[in-house]
Amino acid sequence: MVFQTLDECEALAYRRVVRVPFRDGWQAILVGMQRRADIEGLRAIAVLAVLLFHAGVPGLAGGYVGVDVFFVVSGFLITSLLVTEKESSGVISLSSFYARRVRRLLPVSAVVAVATLGASWIWLEPLRLRSVANDVLAVATFSSNFVFASRGADYLQSTLPPSPLQHYWSLAVEEQFYVVWPVLIALICLGATTTSRVNVRARIGLLSAVVGVTSFVLCMRMMESSQPWAFFSPHTRAFELAAGALIAVVPVMTMKWARSASAIAAWCGLIGIVVTVVQFDERTRFPGPWALAPVLATAVVLRGGNATSWAPVALLRLSPFQWLGSRSYSAYLWHWPILIVVAAAFNRELSVIDGLVCTAIALGLSEFSFRFIENPVRHNIALRGLRAVALATAIIALVAGAGLVARNNPPAIAVGPDATSPTVIGDTTLPAGLTATTTTLVPTAPNLPSRGEPVQAIVEAASMTGLPGNLTPSLQRALSDMPIIYNNNCHAGFSAIRPKNCVFGNETSPIVVGLYGDSHAAQWFPAFEKVAIKRNWKLITYTKRGCPPAEIPTFSSVLGKVYKECAPWRRNVLDQMVTDGVKVVFVAQFERLLSASTRKPMWQKEWREGLQGTVTELESRGIKPVLMEDTPYPGQDVPTCLSRSYTNIQQCSPSVRVAYRDDMNEMLVDFDRAGQQVLWVRNWFCITTSCPTVVGNVLVYRDDNHMTVSFASLIAPLLDTATFEFVDWYSHTP
Known about the structure:
The protein is α/β, with parallel strands linked by helices. The protein has 2 domains: 6-408, no CATH class; 436-732, Rossmann fold (3-Layer(aba) Sandwich). 53% of the residues lie in helices and 7% in strands. It is built from 27 helices and 14 strands. Strands 3, 4, 5, 6, 9, 11 and 12 form a 7-stranded mixed sheet that branches. Strands 8-7-10 form a 3-stranded antiparallel sheet, with no helix packed on it. Strands 1-2 form a two-stranded antiparallel sheet.
């Protein structure tokens, strides 16, 4: 039998290994790349690592490297296919290549995406549906990785619940690679003939090396500025695919000693993959230099995995590995949506047993899709040329259409009757119209009030049940209800090391008040601005994303590194406060920032030492610091929770024990007793047992830990009552 197209060859190669005559009389060895035992075994190990890692199995915290193994294998397979075609026929048919990719990738990915959208519509919180619909559109346009990179790099969106389609980022990277790589190979092989096999492989090898080195350098540089973009971007992941491509064209030495050496190296590589799965975890800087470990390990397995009978192929050809490897693509696509949707349906974090049950369900679905969708379509060689284009167009239209319909027709969130707007009144000791500049100073220095009883509006909020129909802001707009200092660049970004020159209130006032800290200081800005306008203060903000005012090295989960920009920023802020003439500064921070050493929430000891250093530095400069008690920590995205529990909103109210850390409260009490000024705010948010998330018709939180502007403005009178006399005194005291 003489095959006329590579499509026909590949279709047979999926079923068995053969050596057949190709057109024009050339002999082509069809090694059945997709069915080679070592390839399928590697895929099985890769997908097993990912599945068990996502299921929460202990000891496999580095299972995410399975995706890196996939990338290397994909680069190897695609390049091998293109090289074989070039050497056999003298040309590379791009139309045939893309037709094969369409048949191989799109049908199953479309089915999973649409099925996930349907399941999300039924079981996910209504507020998440619009985001999922947008993710479906990203799947249709092969741009998921860019969407999730942007979301992960956004400090305000990085804590949102994970998307059930987030795992499509890796497929998007491969699809983008498949668009560019064959074209580059075809261009670089122009002029090479079927008799210049060495020349073809040398050209492709050089291309792979250049792309790999360039990509790795870009990855290292991107890791310093934005870890999410380094993780999701095609140009920072291309070195992994290029590594597989390079292995595909490196000549294989056939001497016995060389085959034995390759087999030994392959065993070391296989062990290396397992070691990375076991030893890596969330603290591993990835995809930094450590990404080379699974990449190189996979490369040597590809090089020598079947070099001898006792090479890793002896293990990888076992039936369980072969079965899972052949279904790895479907299994990978199904497992993550099931985990996310089931967790949402049961409204709890899944246990390991739950995760394993979900994994078993995913494997069952993968068997079904492998037999009835994946194989029948990809082996149908009639789907080529215009038919392949029609198939791709239909699939893209179907997925995109489903996403558009879902996005434009979100499920309604049932709400109750309108609620009365809450009223919060502070007991001022001065007439409301009297400003601090006209106040007669009292003879002794005033202290900030001690912790009092919960305000009446909070007490009433604790008994609310239904979600008000006039909620402000609405759940859909909650995330964007941010202080203006986010939009006018007054809240410093990650790379900034100098404070912004942002003045509010009365710019000529002799009373200069500072607001200093991270986003948990910035969230107070609407309240402070109202007080500043009322009391004729000059208010200056010194806030920066993720940087605490305390002298503590922190780890940024958004940047994926130790946040080195914080220390110089703090030094510059302290100097700037002196220049600005600040007399009183309010110091606030998120109490659950990550330690640079442990990458876990910092201990009380670190906070105590860091805050004491800040207090000492401020006082040495003649600035009176006020330590603000942190706002409650709901522990989940509040708008999302409310969209699910709209008939009983108290289910979204965290208990005080969850919302506040006892050790941090103990630390502030000690500061208070030592004579430092502490502004206690818990009674503005919580009753003795819980912290309501809706007060009257006002939404308290815009995400999982920040106030809305609406609520910050609501409690401005309480802030005014608690602070204006204190600020007035210290602003007029030499």
